[in-house]
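Retro notes
What went well: the complex prediction finally ran end to end.
Inputs used:
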Amino acid sequence: MDLELLTKLTQTFGPSGHESTIRDLIRQEVEPLVDDVQVTPLGNLIAHRQGAGKKVVLAAHIDEIGIMVTHVDAQGYLRFTRMGGINPLTCIGGRVRFANGAQGVIYLERREDTSKPPTLEQLYIDVGATGKDDAPVGVGDVAAFVRPLEQLGRRIISKTLDDRVGCYVLIEVLRQLKASPYDLYFLFSVQEEVGLTGARTGAYTIDPDLAIAVDVTATGDTPKSLPMAVELGKGPAVKVKDAGMIAHPMAREWLIAAARKAGIPYQLEILEGGTTDAAAMQLARAGVPSGCLSIPSRYIHSPSEMIDSKDVEQAITLLLTALAEV
Amino acid sequence: MTTPLLETLFTLSNIHGASGDEIRVRQALRPMLEGHVESLRVDALGNLIALKRGTGALPLRVLVAAHMDEVSLMVVGHTSEGCLRVENCGGIDTRLLPGLEVRVGPNLLPGVIGQKAVHRLSNGAMKAPDLDRIAVDIGASNKDEAIRLAPVGTRITFATQARELGQLVAGKAFDDRAGCTLLVHLLQGPPLPYDLYGVFTVQEEVGLRGARVAGFSIEPDMAMALEGTIADDLPKPPGTDISPTSEISKGAVITVMDRSHVSAPRLVRHLTQVAEARGIPYQFKQPGIGGTDAGALHIARGGVPSAAVAVPCRYIHGPIALLHPNDLTHTHTLVRAALEQLTPDILDPNAD
């Protein structure tokens, strides 16, 4: 694995709606590998590799979960709201970094009733300010979580593997893919975490015949986890269903056939909570057969998401096999 | 203290236009716009779309939206005594209903929302009423008469008449007749460097439905929603240090992010730069609260960079809202100045 690339991807700033820095980084990587690139009005990056066949889009979202400041109090503490699904429990003691470089630590006010989990309203960010006047940021400013990427044997932990590992897979496919019979679009989508906004509009622009999202999915292999038949390290997961979509059987079988042909393990995924860009893409225009190839991931939307590098490599091989064949 | 802006606001505020039943608002808007715009059309869902040709200096198409509909009740049944059973249609604040005067149906029949006599209340019975226990009294003597006067599906809106109130003005439906007022005056003013589509939308309060189809049909390069938004700036309990959603007399309210939409950062920057350069007071709406037509407009077709600008109004979604005339003026000035100074490079996503 190109850990240097995955490190750059996960560590680059890009909360929903504020993706210009991460988009520029990905653009540098993919522009030499494709026939043309386009940035849509909302900021999606669409990389196009021309082919004679059906239009196929692979999508990975470039935005990450984050926070937005809602209030600076008299002592200089910040209150904030969520951009995407953040869990107060995994925020406490964590750090955030703003677009202008300012950093802060998230902590929890003292609570009388500790029998319930804390709410976001009970958390604050300490940016080292002493009052409103020396706070380096204000209402409306946006921050992303801070946590480095580490390799633990085959496993990798980092912030924002959701969905920079999907971006990584797409970039590696572009690097390694030779000839393909398809007319290929790589959609690096914005604002997935706040409503699949980029994929919805990007799929409209591309008007594809088949759409595949590449994103992370949850696993059922941690202590007392929700029952789920996906494990880390058992191969990429072919989505059957999640809370937002039922994968088109043709898309599902297309991915399964590629896995079999490449001789790599795969898992079938049924995710009870959450969805991906595929849910929006399948409703674009008159409808698009859509599916999703998932990278199993533990601790999604925490600052330390964990994946298995083997699953990532096999996902790349699976997609290369699928795209090389008619 | 009447001004052209306030005159328009009062006229529009007094009109009854529940979601899906905006015809009277549309009828009132037409004569205000005729002669100022090249064309006026009504689309399949009832949006009123005005095209104001620009000078042709810039090859842009800009959509500015304000919604005509207001929160309302709908008749869903009748009691044996001749009262109306109702459902909420767009987020009316039910705490405020008992005892209110309302207008019922296309003929604006007067009605009163029934309540238990205060003498008969036991302690603790003053909590918000359940909507399915509320009955609207239109003075009918029996069920048949009630059905004849207000059949199932009849719309009910607040009876409030707009008026001055100290330094403020009071009225119903400032959400979003305040936005409609700004849009009327924008369209009545001089042409912009590009074509402006002023869209008076339907059914915002029940799911941004008019804006969704208008964004599709117009396919703009940029969109802006004009609103009357929440000002919750009344005194807080001692020791609380939290920001209000917005405040009266603090100027135009710019949305950075709400539940429907993350504003394009370059548009937020443009709005604040114009406000600062022109000395127009502005404030940010506290992020994460509410939603506007921009939520539907920004996902039209291939996506549209969008923003929302609002007049701060106290007590919206209730029978009487309050706003400060200066906020109306400042918001109008900011919107016009920002649109006059809009250039294609501001819409380029690479400029974020």
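What we learned: Residues 66-146 of chain A form a domain with the Elongation Factor Tu (Ef-tu); domain 3 fold (CATH 2.40.30.40).
What to try next: split runs per interface for comparison.
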